[in-house]
TrEMBL record, chain A:
Residues 1-20 are annotated as: Disordered. Residues 1-17 have a biased composition (Pro residues). The keyword Cytoplasm does not apply. CDD domains: Cyt_c_Oxidase_VIb. This is Cytochrome c oxidase subunit 6B1. It comes from the Eukaryota. The keyword Disulfide bond applies. It holds the Pfam family COX6B. SUPFAM superfamilies: Cytochrome c oxidase subunit h. InterPro entries: COX6B-like, CX6/COA6-like_sf, Cyt_c_oxidase_su6B. It comes from Gallus gallus. Coiled coil: none annotated. Keywords: Disulfide bond, Mitochondrion. One of its GO terms (cellular component) is mitochondrion.
Amino acid sequence: MEVPPPFSPSRSPPNPSPALSVGRSTLCTSVISLAAPRAVASLPAALCAVRLGGSVVRAAAVKVTLTGTAAAAAMAEDIRTKLEHYKTAPFDSRFPNQNQTRNCWQNYLDFHRCEKAMAAKGADATPCQWYYRVYKSICPTSWVTTWDEYREEGTFPGKI
Amino acid sequence: MANHSQLGFQDASSPIMEELVEFHDHALMVALAICSLVLYLLTLMLMEKLSSNTVDAQEVELIWTILPAIVLVLLALPSLQILYMMDEIDEPDLTLKAIGHQWYWTYEYTDFKDLSFDSYMTPTTDLPLGHFRLLEVDHRIVIPMESPIRVIITADDVLHSWAVPALGVKTDAIPGRLNQTSFITTRPGVFYGQCSEICGANHSYMPIVVESTPLKHFEAWSSLLSS
């Protein structure tokens, strides 16, 4: 079973895995990914808790089906729209506090992991651009340059 | 900016700072009331008007327990309200990165293009007439007014602190850490601040200047910067 790259359970998560459809709600994706980030393809169904207007509302059970290109195309369109309307990195509920160091690090890792996974599958790497835009917004340029050098040398401390 | 011998806050230019100024006024009133009461009681005591033969003081004990509790509640409630208000999530329109060095700031705007510049203090010998000594910089931060701005603050070498009193912002710049703060400017203007964490010989000479302008002027400025 192929392992989909980790995706962000933030408010607008792109799902780079083309084999997974979770209906229309991208917010539901967050809960599913939190439940089983590495085994999403085998998840039969999930209750999706979404936050609406400050209160947690249980949405209907979301049927997770393995679909092909139609869902992938819809997902790609979603991410393209999100990228077109990108202003700056949105609030990420995984990092709600003052310390955003991990936010920068995680998005940098996610981008490179996504690119690597997409290249391995021969799939379109456009959804990975979300992580790129976010880390570009948050990470200091000098940090990114240093990490890029480490990756080239093979001494990068993160797992990509 | 602050004028010489200024005692009070600078005019608030962000909603949070407005709240902080109001809270300070309120806290100062509470402090004035307590000090007046204490002074009054002290005077009475010195004039020997408070002597008593009683050994049972239940009533007065009750009063000077309940009254301070009420005072504390009067201080805590608005304080916590502002604390939570500061943490409210407001999706920012722009992310600005401020990196502290010895002894200047680097600012980066990388949401779209890679815009980056250094900001050094204007030396007094080069200061044009009418400009503010030790506060002016060669390149100011320009931001659109009335827009939520996220600032990510870090440092390259030692501890610094990015502070702009008129906006109610002060956040430490720590090497290896990204500290996030945010603000909205309620009006256009130029707001000054100074490094607020001792960082070596020229700690007093690395000021911060934020220029808040309408969006179209900000866009014009950023186009100039990127060209």
